[in-house]
Amino acid sequence: MTPENAIYALWCAWLASWIVAMLWSNRTEKRDAIEAEILFRVLFYASAILLFAFPARPRYRVQMQLWHFGDAMNWMLAASTAAGLLFTWWARMHLGRLWSDYVVKKAGHHVVDTGPYRLVRHPIYSGLIVAAFATAIEKGTSFAMFGGAVVTLAFYMKARREEHFLRAELGDNAYYDYARKTAMLVPFVRIES
Prior knowledge:
Helices cover 62% and strands 4% of the residues. It is mainly α. It has a single domain (3-181), classed as Four Helix Bundle (Hemerythrin (Met), subunit A) (Up-down Bundle), CATH 1.20.120.1630. Helix 1 runs parallel beside helix 3, helix 2 runs antiparallel to helix 5 and helix 4 runs antiparallel to helix 5 (142-170). The longest helix has 29 residues, at 142-170. It is elongated and about 50 Å long. The chain starts with a helix and ends in a 12-residue tail after the last helix.
């Protein structure tokens, strides 16, 4: 098995398990506006196409192979992809039945500030960004790197929207106190929202 095949297998296993876990969630009480969610979905799926739909050995004039690494480095990037995906699972398990694929308020919703949520306010997004960039770096193409940048933008925008929604729904003080002491996406890097 090559490192690239291992990365694809990791993503497929993660996606399959994530779809099954979607069934494990509390009832939704309130949803954010659908228009903003559509923009996120367009950016997210565009980034997935850029990351996965084009071969690592480019056949397109607009795509460039930026670098090639040896097996040792590629296996380290595969391990980084696995670490990012495992981080998302730690967060998903810790969040439990409050998790949703959309920006929503669930029954019994409250600020979760323990486990991976002590490190960053959006550990699922952080883990997916790490996994996407590790994948992009391993592929070493301009399309893949652009896909990593687009997924970062998509999750940053969704995180900002989610925080605005949760402040309104859970009370500004509760979420503000949490946001004041916890980084948004990168541990120890504070971004006010």
